[in-house]
């Protein structure tokens, strides 16, 4: 699978993504496309409309045309690649698909969005294979708010993943306290030591975790070292409050954590000394250092799981100006 799959899935339901429109979903609901986790299947489970599939499936076409679904991204941003996953669809997958993008301001009627004629092609009409994760690179540095998946002519898709980087609306960044580590504000995990149980990108998701699987959890360490995660912030900024949340991690939370920041000059500085953590707890720590940082590294000792990481602060004037420039 290409490297772009290590980037956040901007369409995921837990990020606020939604499948807002489809011209057909007779056999299986469109909402399944953006559910977290892989598609599941149990043979010989029949409902009134046939075999039950964990995906989006349309009826067999008897006339010319295509089937389409429109996804509102949970986090608007730059798309680096998509995955059209046809898991379990073996005799009923679409032979070809395409993907388009559009920028929509506000919340117009979904049918009006689908009917617009200014969609931009991100993935041209391309062959796909059944029961397969079909990856496609996207060569565009523009920001998108919605994507449209088209099947030629019909069939079923289990999951639709839209990987990229969040690019926020600068009009929203000055409206209140800013989480510099929020994915929806443009932050992103760039590296980590281990992702055995779950993705570290979960740390930056909006809202509170609902179960242990909503967070980031590493394998058990046996080598005397420790696990860590590195985050590129929404922009250079001064962190005033750090929240390290171990909610739902009861017997597998880290014993301690430390936080460092990377200055604009490239120097790493201590933001939070190694501090004991408690299980199933939202920890909030004041950060005294007023030096702006662009990235942070959170070390956990020795291993374990975290639900969320919040870093509240203020963007520098230069960082805000750069966000506005990219917006334009």
TrEMBL record:
GO biological process, one term: allantoin catabolic process
Start and end residues of each Allantoicase domain: 16-165, 186-315
Annotated keywords: Hydrolase, Purine metabolism
Enzyme Commission designation: 3.5.3.4
Catalytic function, reaction form: allantoate + H2O = (S)-ureidoglycolate + urea
Root EC class: hydrolase
Pathway connected to this protein: Nitrogen metabolism; (S)-allantoin degradation; (S)-ureidoglycolate from allantoate (aminidohydrolase route): step 1/1
Family according to the record: Belongs to the allantoicase family.
Protein name, entry field: Probable allantoicase
Species per Swiss-Prot/TrEMBL record: Antrihabitans stalagmiti
Gene that this polypeptide is encoded by: alc
